[in-house]
Amino acid sequence: MIYLDNAATSFPKPETVYASMEKCIRTYCANPGRGSHSMSVKSSLAVNNTRERIAELINVENSLNICFTKNATEALNIAVSGLLREGDHVITTCMEHNSVLRPLKILEKYKGIKLTVIDGDGLGRIDPFIIKRHITKKTRLIACTLSSNVNGIIMPFGEIGRTAQNNGILFLLDASQGLGSIEVDMKKTYASMVAFPGHKGLLGPQGTGGLYIAADIRLNPLMSGGTGSKSEYLLQPELLPDKFESGTLNTPGIVGLGAGVEFIEKTGLNAIRTKKNELVRRLYDGLSQNRNIKLYSPEKVEENSGIVSFNVKGADSSEICTLLDGKYSIECRSGLHCAPLAHKHFGTGKTGMVRLSVGYFNSLSEIDNTISAINRIIYEVNKN
Amino acid sequence: MIYLDNAATSFPKPETVYASMEKCIRTYCANPGRGSHSMSVKSSLAVNNTRERIAELINVENSLNICFTKNATEALNIAVSGLLREGDHVITTCMEHNSVLRPLKILEKYKGIKLTVIDGDGLGRIDPFIIKRHITKKTRLIACTLSSNVNGIIMPFGEIGRTAQNNGILFLLDASQGLGSIEVDMKKTYASMVAFPGHKGLLGPQGTGGLYIAADIRLNPLMSGGTGSKSEYLLQPELLPDKFESGTLNTPGIVGLGAGVEFIEKTGLNAIRTKKNELVRRLYDGLSQNRNIKLYSPEKVEENSGIVSFNVKGADSSEICTLLDGKYSIECRSGLHCAPLAHKHFGTGKTGMVRLSVGYFNSLSEIDNTISAINRIIYEVNKN
């Protein structure tokens, strides 16, 4: 089996992720922050260890500004619904995932926010100058992805953050694609909020994610409930991260996420990026030899977070993925990738795209086998 | 170590929970419902297997009416925020957890709902006739816990459900305490919604929970985002369970939860209940011998979901728990247990209570050792 669906969820995980989760759940997994007994304290410490590792990874001073969520979608919903009020104007892009677009569209339809959706260039890249042109006095937020989950194009998120800051606007970075192999540094990026999943580039398990919230940002919580703190209050406490962490946390998941981030620290962001670049280059070069293939991803690896998307002339993307899976055990994803406006942008709203997304654990020989398999499928399809 | 904090999270889990999670995360953990490749399909099937097991446990015909959440708190927030509108009247009880009280209090403060909080009897038990007396034309919802997380008293939830149904009112059952050892049958209970955690009585891991939503109930979603279905829509699809399951699910967690429910099926609800009753009876009888102890839990095991709460005259609950943990490695919980109105009801708002909560895996000898330890602590405290 060759797994090339790392943009959906990374697989496999580092061995330490499995081992740390197993140890947690078998030996000390009490309710973190809910009791003062030894096991509960050990669980709390383990959760906060992961919090600190993530703070270090994105260069945040106070790890308490990082709140754990079940996935990036929850983090994005907290950010968008917690911040925006009637009359606010938001700028976003056609390259966003539905986890950004749907919360914004719902607020536009039911809560009276105004929404501007910026188009990208040929590769879907967003120009910060175009964002700037759309800023009005009412603009409260710019929401943009770190890189596209459809074709991998990396956005100029540093410049977009600067544009936001220079205009007194908040910037929400959706770091779902790229965190863990691309440097995201809060001292350089000027993001007010960063939403991230734990189970993609950070190499943790599913059921984890988080939201960084800058100290000066006040959001309404999406949920309320038991926080283990200030139990006597009948309203939600303001304290971070408790305000956004109601109910029992996913302790074993967060422990696994900590091991994932530790693996990234030890391996080095640069080494991970270099490896992924090598895989992407080989894949792109291989596929570009076949004139029946139309590629949608950036050719330059420094502009690409790890995705090679394509279509085969005359074939639906799902047909190709089904053959890759059924005949060659190559796991990748077809369709719209929950990003309908990006596909509209590329003119692939009907066919979708075949998306191959690489991870640090893929090998060059897997890439070579994938290229051969695709070439053989195209040969068979054209023969019939 | 003796673990008596099962009301916070159950520990240990059945061996099959650990093994199934390990197998999932190591061998097939792709993104469920997001791709058509074999691993993704296998993950989807595993998630839906758990969904069906839970549907069977609570006797629900269509498992798609069960939506997975990260914990019971998320499920309760979806139920409360998704249903209630300005002007609605809600009846709840003083025995609720903050995961019910806080969402309702926030709606009362900011969204114009009316809230009636019913008091319980000496043990905190809610009388359905008192609920009935408070029903008005505006009453939309009755929200009540299956049993108290403070003292274990089991509520007459079947009768409360009937009262709701007879008056055309919806009933939200918070099944956080008791599901997995107390029969909850949707054909008998008349609940419109049931919120449950996966990591307590269902013996699954943290990071799991769910909400059963009856077919005729329409709730607004708390979050929106990628659902893997109808990706071309820029608003949230209405389809269940997708409407409430935006973003990547916690596949290994849900797989573990399925193994937990399977363990319950195989062992039998009655056998689990009988074992817990035996432990509670021994604990209650043992502690009631010491005249320095004030007990707050129901003496009759058929009225108790598995908790023995008490205070020691002249001592704060946290002092006792700290000694139990530090000197005897007995893990239990002091304080307010996120249920401030229940403690107000019992007059323990300042001292809290020592809560011992048993699980299926506790033994009688652990209970005997706990009783001895508590007696010795009281002897030492009184000596000083």
Could you characterize the architecture of this molecule?
The structure is a homodimer of 384-residue chains. The first copy, chain A, is an alpha/beta fold. Chain A has 2 domains: 2-10 and 268-374, Alpha-Beta Complex (Aspartate Aminotransferase, domain 1); 15-267, Type I PLP-dependent aspartate aminotransferase-like (Major domain) (Aspartate Aminotransferase, domain 2, 3-Layer(aba) Sandwich). In chain A, 40% of the residues lie in helices and 14% in strands. Chain A is built from 12 helices and 12 strands. Chain A has helices at 15-28, 38-57, 72-83, 98-110, 128-133, 157-166, 186-189, 251-267, 269-288, 317-328, 340-346, 364-383; strands at residues 2-3, 66-69, 89-93, 114-118, 139-145, 170-174, 193-197, 209-213, 293-295, 307-312, 330-331, 354-357. Chain A has a 7-stranded mixed sheet with strand order 2-8-7-6-5-3-4, sandwiched between helices. In chain A, β3 (89-93), α4 (98-110) and β4 form a beta-alpha-beta unit. Chain A starts with a strand and ends with a helix. The model of chain A has no long low-confidence stretch (mean pLDDT 96). Chains A and B meet through α1, α2, α3, α4 and α8 of A and α1, α2, α3, α4 and α8 of B.
